[in-house]
Amino acid sequence: MNRLRPLVLLSIVSVVFLIIYYSVNTEPVYPLQTVTKADITESIEQLSKQFDLNTDIKSKAPTYETRANESIGQYIAKHKWTPEEIENLTSEIPIYTISVLVDMEHFEVDPFTAEVVRASNIFYEINSEKEVSEFIETVFGAGFEKVDEEQTFFGEVEQIYSRGEVIGDIEEKLSITLTDHAIIGFHKYGEVREFQLSTSLFNFWEILLILIFMVTIVIIAIVATVQLIKRLNKNEIETFLGPFLISLLAGIGWFFGLYLAMGTVDVFSLLFTGVLTYTTFIILLITAKKADYVQPFSQIAIKLQPAVWNGFLLMLVSTVLVTIFYGIWAQFGAWTSPVMDYSIFLNTPLWALPVFALSLGICASISEETIFRRYLIPAFDRWGVIFSVIATSFLWGIGHMGYHMVPWHIRIFEFMIIVGPFFYYVYKRYGFVTAIFCHYFYNSLFGSIFLISIYWPVGVLSVVLTLVPFLVFLKRSPEKRGHLLFRSVS
């Protein structure tokens, strides 16, 4: 007699739950930007020429990212605005912006009008309050009245202006940053008094945690290198080609993922990608067993089949756990940017979009599972399971601080409460390769589903590319395939 394995049953329940949950709970949908890179460049250059800012964007390689207004976003989510209401609001005030970083200068552009609504690290000389008013009227029009003035931490003066409420409780505001008789920044934005907008470009604690993450990766790379040298001296390295090819695949994934997401890859991104790839390679090299790699491909494929299948099923379970986590926190005001990945439509040709989801899955699954599961878990387990779970979850979580959320640290809670412990269990119960496939399917399918919500033909193609590893399982004969689905009982 056969019966379904518990994991299969749990994954079926997970699918049913997700269908019911997302049919009942719908997230606000923001319209996709209509401006192009050429429109953005033209607007910034016009502003630069008008006020002698000397911004040279054409000869540079700026990064482009989309950033939602969290004050308006939380207001929209609370009142469950329809797509039509959201689209009407975009004609009144930017609900999200396209962020452009050119060297040290930072600009934000309205994604529908190409109006420059924010600039930082500029220098426009003024000699009187009247000239400030003239600047405001020239750039943003009439109607703004000064409502506040305060001194920043660095001694600059920030003046706040308001033009009143535009729709509902959303107030149109403008900040002008002054120092030494010059305007060094401005920012036009919408704000709801109930949900204060964080107008600072960078959060100190986020930056600190990201630095801790980077230093941690460098330390791991150094320690692993020392271990490699010792093993080389003892002739304990069993294989080279397999770890090299897998690490190379991860490095290619990181490069294309970053390039498609930001439109460019700067020196810093290349350097850090190189460190991640190198660290992945060294760890795989010192932990590899010859028997795992030096086999005919057909045997390796057969060996991978349970890991692929279990990874796919575990991905469904993990998706439910994360969905429940954010569903609960949403009741307490947590918010996630609806436009987090919109920049890929600005940076990436339509035909290359499926590659983005594929790259996202490949690079993160290989590198992160190698570093945080294959290497850190055995290292931390000597101090106990609880310490190992907490430490690996925290370090893994702070590596994901670039996501735009409220509160900003909710991603750390997600990893420490849900994702980190779950992947610790997967690694211990099902093994390293299963953890890689679970991570791969999770990242790639999330990216593919996002693409489906925007351009469904591209999203469907992305799903097909994502599921290619799953075909390894389908190569089994029907009889053998059943052994993965069922377990026999007497």
TrEMBL record:
The keyword Chloroplast does not apply. GO terms for molecular function: metallopeptidase activity. Residues 352-444 form the CAAX prenyl protease 2/Lysostaphin resistance protein A-like domain. It holds the Pfam family Rce1-like. Keywords: Hydrolase, Membrane, Metalloprotease, Protease, Transmembrane, Transmembrane helix. It comes from the Bacteria. The keyword Metal-binding does not apply. The chain crosses the membrane at residues 7-24, 207-229, 241-261, 267-286, 307-329, 349-367, 379-398, 410-427, 432-452. This is CPBP family intramembrane metalloprotease. It comes from Alkalihalobacterium chitinilyticum.
